[in-house]
Design a protein that fits this description.
The chain is an alpha+beta fold. It contains ten helices and eleven strands. The strands form two sheets. Strands 1, 2, 3, 4, 5, 6 and 11 form a seven-stranded mixed beta sheet that branches. Strands 8-9-7-10 form a four-stranded antiparallel beta sheet, sandwiched between helices. The protein is globular and about 55 Å long. It catalyses: L-homoserine + ATP = O-phospho-L-homoserine + ADP + H(+). One of its GO terms (cellular component) is cytoplasm. Keywords: Amino-acid biosynthesis, ATP-binding, Cytoplasm, Kinase, Nucleotide-binding, Threonine biosynthesis, Transferase.
């Protein structure tokens, strides 16, 4: 048996729609695999009741098919489905690494990214890599048409998850189909600032680079209380706030000394809107790791 811990992720980071992603130190899924004649799936943990165990409908089933690696796969969910924290990507990334090791396929982590992305297509309809890449590689990742780049970064973060759901398909539906040149120039500038901030592990630059006037406003409309939560986080010391992935989680960048107060402010702001929420005081972390069993 091979077991892998695969971390939650946050994609887009505001200005990097479908391109940027970071691995979070926590929460995470644990995926355990054993050889079998055909693939079967067992799911436990957070939101397990909402996840199909049919291999045709589960992300890890698609990964097992792509690797030609049938197995009994057990997923212990630590990342809630429909959270905006890469729940399906964590399962897909964990399964890809675990099955590759189980069958000794010899793929690099970079080579496993498009395989894990096949699992993402089961959920969202698109084999995008902005979540599976950081879950496998760790750190800050940039997914582009000419490949994936990653860099280690030390940035304190708060991921605040309200007790509501936003589907990836709905979140993609509201994304504008066109953008004016002024918005394009601003987005490129913000994305460049964020990238520089990641390379320097500078929360101020990263926070400034998270500002986005194209995708984030449209997705924020799907999250009850987003504006108030964002303002509360900024007042508590956050350097930047944005929607995490498709939402409803909200991601705040901050300094270590402000992380606790930012987390509390975000939870309180959701409560003011009548919404329960949980805040993860986290940071950019490593990618999937094989566990000793």
């Amino acid at each position: 048996m091979i077991a892998v811990r695969a971390p939650a992720t946050s994609a887009n980071l505001g200005s990097g729609f479908d391109v940027f992603g970071v691995a979070l130190s926590h929460p995470a899924d644990v995926v355990a695999v054993e050889r079998a004649e055909e693939t079967t799936i067992e799911v436990t943990g957070t939101g397990a009741q909402y996840i199909p165990e049919d291999p045709e409908s589960n992300v890890v089933g698609a990964v097992a098919d792509a690797l030609d690696a049938p197995a009994h796969i057990r997923i212990d969910k630590g990342v809630r489905p429909a959270s905006g924290l890469g729940s399906s990507a964590a399962s897909a990334a964990g399964a890809a690494l675990a099955l590759d090791r189980l069958y000794d396929r010899g793929n690099s982590r970079e080579e496993l990214v498009p395989i894990a992305a096949e699992g993402e297509a089961v959920v969202s309809g698109t084999a995008h890599t902005d979540n599976v890449a950081p879950s496998l590689l760790g750190g800050f990742t940039v997914s582009s048409t000419d490949g994936i780049r990653s860099v280690d970064a030390s940035i304190p973060l708060v991921a605040c998850l309200p007790d509501v759901a936003v589907s990836t398909r709905d979140a993609r539906r509201v994304v504008p189909e066109t953008v004016d040149i002024e918005s394009l120039v601003d987005t490129v500038g913000r994305a460049s600032t964020l990238t520089l901030g990641m390379c320097r592990s500078d929360p101020e630059l990263v926070g400034n680079g998270m500002i986005d006037t194209v995708v984030t406003p449209a997705r924020a409309e799907l999250i009850t209380g987003y504006a108030d939560v964002r303002d509360a986080a900024l007042e508590a010391g956050a350097t930047g706030v944005t929607v995490s992935g498709a939402g409803p989680a909200i991601l705040a960048c901050c300094r270590t000394s402000d992380r606790r107060s930012v987390a509390a402010a975000m939870v309180d702001a959701f409560l003011e809107e009548g919404v329960d929420a949980r805040a993860y005081q986290t940071e950019i972390g490593p990618g999937a790791t094989v566990l000793d069993r």
